[in-house]
Design a protein that fits this description.
The structure is a single chain. The chain has about 325 residues and is of the alpha/beta class. The relative contact order is 0.14. The protein is built from 13 helices and 8 strands. The protein has one domain (about 5-270): TIM Barrel (Alpha-Beta Barrel), CATH 3.20.20. The termini are far apart. It has helices spanning about 10-15, 25-35, 60-65, 80-90, 105-110, 115-130, 155-165, 180-195, 210-220, 250-260, 265-280, 290, 300-305; strands at about 5-10, 40-45, 75-80, 95-100, 135-140, 170-175, 200-205, 225-230. It has an 8-stranded parallel beta sheet with strand order 1-8-7-6-5-4-3-2.
């Protein structure tokens, strides 16, 4: 049986673009519910300027309140050395850094050039190795940029080679603004793998143009064994025009489960988390499986659960400001 590791990004990438600011206790409950559903690796916070991303202002408080488990990895996103030092002090056992393939987007997202972000990553990676913290890096806008347009695959391959010098746990290819199509994924993943034999690859897709699940399938077919998802499909990049959410984790799991792919995540439990988070946000979430339900298993159970929760019968009439 093939296996895919799911990295849940809802508590970080999901919440960072929401207008509703969840309190620390709600974030901790969100994370604990995700872990109870079987997810063992998840983004829980970003250590960035709270004035720019107020949803992540309580990163340290969230980490402090989370139970420590040997089988669970809490990832903190960092963009510079200051962020890494905060993540280290807070007790993250994995950090993720971002290097953007587009200089324009890198400047808007991180306030520096791509070259400066590469240098920052290499410094952070060395510090993480010295501190015995797992470090991985994402190449953002790997499939296209809202400001510069198409990104040449050769540019992504070059960046992958350069960040590999920091000995990352893995390199992620991110469709940050949801412009990719499966043929791009099928081309880029093998090119990066050929340039970096043996380097673990992860993929991160957004569903802005409704191609996210198809892209995840293309990545799986290309041999990628780690995929990101956000419960309910919430989130998006605050610095990208018209950004919408990530691919819904439960929709991704449904596809993989029906394909016979092992994930070790309980889909029924994850659907319950999706129903819970939409009550916290006060609105229905984009995920399709939360609306349609599983097939054919657990349909009656889901119907009973859905009928007992808000947004079940008439989502539009119950949205709160």
């Amino acid at each position: 049986m093939k296996r895919v590791e799911i990295v849940e990004v809802g508590p970080r990438d999901g919440l960072q673009n929401e207008s509703v600011l969840l309190g620390t206790a709600a974030k901790v409950e969100f994370i604990n519910r995700i872990v109870a559903a079987g997810v063992r690796r998840l983004e829980v916070a970003s250590f960035v300027n709270p004035k720019k991303v107020p949803q992540m202002a309580d990163a340290e408080e969230v980490l402090k309140a989370l139970p420590r488990r040997a089988d669970v990895t809490y990832i903190g996103l960092v963009l510079n050395r200051r962020g890494f030092d905060r993540a280290l002090a807070a007790g993250c056992n994995e950090i993720g850094m971002v290097v953007v393939a587009s200089d324009t987007f890198n400047a808007r997202n991180q306030g520096v050039t791509t070259e400066e972000s590469v240098a920052a990553w290499l410094e952070i990676a060395a510090a993480a190795h010295a501190a015995n913290i797992r470090a991985q890096v994402t190449i953002s806008t790997a499939f296209g940029c809202p400001f510069e347009g198409e990104i040449a695959p050769a540019r992504v391959v070059e960046l992958a080679r350069r960040v590999a010098a920091g000995r990352p746990h893995e390199i992620a290819l991110a469709d940050t603004v949801g412009v990719a199509v499966p043929s791009q994924v099928s081309e880029l993943v093998p090119r990066v793998r050929a340039a970096l034999p043996g380097m673990p690859l992860r993929c991160h897709f957004h569903n802005t143009r409704n191609t996210g699940i198809a892209n995840a399938y293309a990545a799986f077919e290309a041999g990628v064994e780690v995929l990101d998802g956000s419960i309910g499909g919430i989130g998006g990049c605050p610095f990208a025009p018209a950004a919408t959410g990530n691919i819904p984790t439960e929709d991704l799991l449904y596809m993989l489960e029906r394909m016979g792919v092992q994930t070790d995540v309980d889909l029924d439990a994850l659907l319950e988390v999706g129903r819970w988070i939409q009550t916290q946000l006060g609105r229905p979430v984009p995920g399709m499986l939360l609306k349609a339900g599983r097939f054919p298993k657990s349909a009656q159970r889901e119907a009973a659960l859905a009928a007992s929760l808000p947004f079940a019968s008439n989502p539009k009439s119950q949205v709160r400001a």
